[in-house]
Amino acid sequence: MAVFGHEGVKPRVRRVDTLTAKRNKRAAERVQAFVDGEWIEQAQPNTALVSIPLGLTKTQITRQLNKILESYDERLRTPAKPYAKYPLLGTRQRKDTLFRYLSVVWMRSAMPRQALWRVGARAKVSDTYSPELDPKARVVRGEQIYDREVLSILTSRAYNRGIALAENAARGRFPSYDVPEHAVEPDLRELWALVGSRRKWKRNQAKQTAR
Predict the structure, then answer these.
(1) Whole-prediction pTM value?
(2) What is the residue range of 156's domain?
(3) What is the pLDDT of residue 54?
(4) In the prediction, which pLDDT does 111 show?
(5) 76, 133, 141, 172: which has the fewest Cβ within 10 Å?
């Protein structure tokens, strides 16, 4: 939330629970559920947890609440607009498309000398053409190559967009397909080494969590 700028739902006053002589054993659980749920959805605004005896009059409650609120520094009582360190560009994002482009870049780094259509088939860049082609198949002379040509074009486009995504993300703009000035063509061998290192780290993290 802090990194990508989800501003959350509008904060509001709400009842978390009611305590009575017969109904108080799960109060702490309900408070924790509020903290873990709605409070986070509201982007974690400064919030006072207050106990209000229901037998008091509205005048008494209002007076005592005002006294509690006035005890807080004005800075804490000023609504703060959530600030994103890396705000997303645009309002409509398609996660599957973004990761499909990045997947092509990763697959290309694993297959730097293979034909583009093979990369696209392995990365499943196209719902139409990728399932129809075997990335390990031999190309027979005289065979119809239309599907491979189309998939090569789609893979090339996806690769270029994936590189642009990564370049712009490194410059603090995400997601963007615009080719930035002075864009750097990645070293595919170095990139694959980074991908492999990340996978190894994730496996180690999973093993530590399972212990």
Answers:
(1) 0.60
(2) 95-210
(3) 93
(4) 93
(5) 141
